[in-house]
Amino acid sequence: MSVMGEFTINSADFALHETLSAAPEMVVEIERLVATTQERLMPYFWVTGDDQETFEEAFTADPSITNATRVSEIDDTVLYRAEWTDNIEAIIYAYVEIGATILEATGTNEHWSLKMRFDDEETVAEFHEFCLKRDVEFELDRLYEQSQPMASSQYGLTPVQRETLVTAYEEGLFDVPQQTTMTELAASMGITQQTLSERLHHAHKSLIGHVLTVGQVGEGDDVDPNR
Questions:
Q1: 212 neighbors 201 (Cβ within 8 angstroms)
Q2: What's the whole-number average pLDDT of the chain?
Q3: Do 13 and 138 form a contact (C-beta atoms < 8 A)?
Q4: For the chain, which ranges sit under pLDDT 50?
Q5: CA distances (Å), 149 to each of 44, 55, 117, 118, in order?
Q6: What is the dihedral of CA 168, 24, 15, 4, to 10 degrees?
Q7: Could you give the C-alpha distances from 92 to 26, 39, 41, 109, in angstroms and in order?
Q8: 89-124: pLDDT as tens digits
Q9: Which residues sit opposite 33 in a β-bridge?
Q10: At how many degrees (to 10) do helices 182-189 and 159-171 cross?
Q11: Most CB within 10 Å of its CB: which of 3, 88, 113, 203?
Q12: What are the backbone angles phi and psi of residue 164, rounded to the nearest 5°?
C-alpha cells in the first residue's frame, strides 16, 4: 500500500522563491506535473492574487524554471506552464529516481505545502536522506497509508479549492445561521475576502460540473422537488 507524506518546505529551498519574494501576496498552486524528458518536469501553475503583473515579470526570469508560458486566465486566476530546471533537484530526484508523485503543492512567499505519494516508507526515508544531505529544510507534517482514492480529484477540485471548502464548512460558513462571515473567514485564512470569494466560486463550479451535471434528468422522469 502506498504511503502519503505531507511536508512543509521553506520557499528558499523549493521553486519560485525569487518570484514569490517579488510578489509576496500571490499564491501558487501546482495543478499537475508532466514529464517531458527524464531530466525535465513540466508543472502547470495556477496563480491567484492581486499582483499578476509583478508576478509574471518575475516568473519569466526565475532561475528555477524555464520556457514559461501563460496558458489561460479565468477571472483573476492565471494558469502558467513551465519547465523546472536542475535547481529543483530534490523534486526531480523524488519524481525520477524513486518514483514519488506530487499530488498537491501550494506555495507562498514563506513556504510550500506538499502532499506526495511514495511506494513505501523506505522511499520516504530515501527522500528524507536526500534532502538532509543537500540542506533542504522541510518538516514532515504527516505520514500515513493511503486507504482510499483521493476524493477531491474525482470531483475536479484543486487542493486550494478543497482546503477552502473544508475550512469554510468547519468554521460554519454554510450553517444557518452562519457561525462565521466571509470577512472573518478570509482573515483567519490570511487572504483577502475577494480571493476567498473567487476560491469558493471556482470550487462550487467544479463540484457542480463534476457531480450534478454528470447525468441529465430526462423528460417524464419523476422528480421529487423537495429532495
A1: no
A2: 79
A3: yes
A4: 36-38, 148-152, 214-227
A5: 22, 34, 12, 14
A6: -20
A7: 24, 7, 7, 22
A8: 677 777 677 878 787 888 999 888 888 888 888 888
A9: 43
A10: 120
A11: 203
A12: -65, -45
Rounded CA separation 27/110 (Å): 10
- Alpha-carbon separation of residue 19 from 42, 151, 156, 180 (angstroms): 17, 31, 28, 34
- Among 148, 147, 128, smallest CA distance to 139 is for 128
- Among candidate residues 38, 203, 30, the one with its CA nearest the CA of residue 115: 30
Q: Which three cell numbers stand for residue 177?
A: 445561521
Residue 55 contacts residue 19 (beta carbons within 8 Å)? yes
Task: Give all strands (DSSP E) within 163-215, no chain letters.
Answer: none
Per-residue DSSP letter, 15: T
The residues, ordered by sequence, that sit 6+ positions from 182 with a Cβ below 8 Å of its Cβ are 173, 193, 196, 197
CB neighbour list of residue 21: distance below 8 Å, 6 or more residues apart:
11, 58, 109
Cis before 177 (ω within 30)? yes
CA–CA distance, 118 with 115 (Å, rounded to integer): 10
- Of 32, 35, 1, whose CA–CA distance to 123 is shortest? 1
Measured distance CA(202)–CA(216) in Å, rounded: 22
- For residues 56, 61, 66, 69, the Cα torsion angle rounded to the nearest 10 degrees is 20
Question: What does the alpha-carbon distance between residue 211 and residue 205 come to, in Å, rounded to a whole number?
Answer: 10
CB within 8 Å of 129: residues ≥ 6 apart: none
